[in-house]
């Protein structure tokens, strides 16, 4: 049969398609979209097998479904497609392999007042004051910062504690830091839809993971229930961290002021 006559070009084609499918799978893994992705993949594979054996009627029916399936994909996978395009646009596929690094900021500009942030988180842990802090990198998160109250304030421990004090009108929502400056507070963030997300964690933690899934930002959470620190990067959540661990984590990413 023709489909058994594979040349070098066909083999390369299959490998590239496999890589593409794997990258898409990694994006939808852990979400409700994974079952739809698997279902559509099975239908597509079945269509190619039926077409190879020249079952014309069945092949035509499945072919029509696949044709409409493009529209279905756009509707069902809106968030995943957006995430995938951002993934490609930022060069993460190559960057994560260490083959190429996109760095649009000068190293000396990547400065952060880490001491004040870790000290504020330590104090809020002791008083069990809930907080959500987002620190931008390349993505400026302008859309999200504009959803809150603009501050443009210098970073300091007292400002963090004042903003997240439980009776403060700004304590709900996220605080966004850009270029070593507090840009805005009470910001609304997207939340993760991952089915693997721990059920014992609240909306602050969901928002922390959600914003790091959609951007290269770093998110820090202080739980008002147990006073524990968590932080998130690239959609991955690290829980039950100490202020020292938080400081070390930030120092691996930013330059200390």
Characterise this structure.
With 257 residues, this protein is of the alpha+beta class. It folds into 2 domains: 2-95, no CATH class; 107-256, YojJ-like (1 (3-Layer(aba) Sandwich). Helices cover 48% and strands 17% of the residues. It has 10 helices and 9 strands. It has helices spanning 8-28, 33-52, 56-76, 78-89, 92-95, 114-126, 142-145, 157-164, 203-214, 243-251; strands at residues 111-112, 131-135, 149-154, 174-178, 181-187, 218-222, 229-233, 236-241, 255-256. A 7-stranded mixed β-sheet has the order 3-5-4-2-6-7-8, with helices on both faces. The chain is elongated and about 75 Å long. The relative contact order is 0.11. Mean pLDDT is 82; it is low at 92-108.
List the helices and strands and how they pair.
Layout: H1 8-28, H2 33-52, H3 56-76, H4 78-89, H5 92-95, E1 111-112, H6 114-126, E2 131-135, H7 142-145, E3 149-154, H8 157-164, E4 174-178, E5 181-187, H9 203-214, E6 218-222, E7 229-233, E8 236-241, H10 243-251, E9 255-256
Parallel strand pairs: 1-9, 2-4
Antiparallel strand pairs: 2-6, 3-5, 4-5, 6-7, 7-8
Helix pairs in contact: 2-3, 6-8, 6-10
Quick take:
This protein has helices at residues 8-28, 33-52, 56-76, 78-89, 92-95, 114-126, 142-145, 157-164, 203-214, 243-251, and strands at 111-112, 131-135, 149-154, 174-178, 181-187, 218-222, 229-233, 236-241, 255-256. With 257 residues, the protein is of the alpha+beta class.
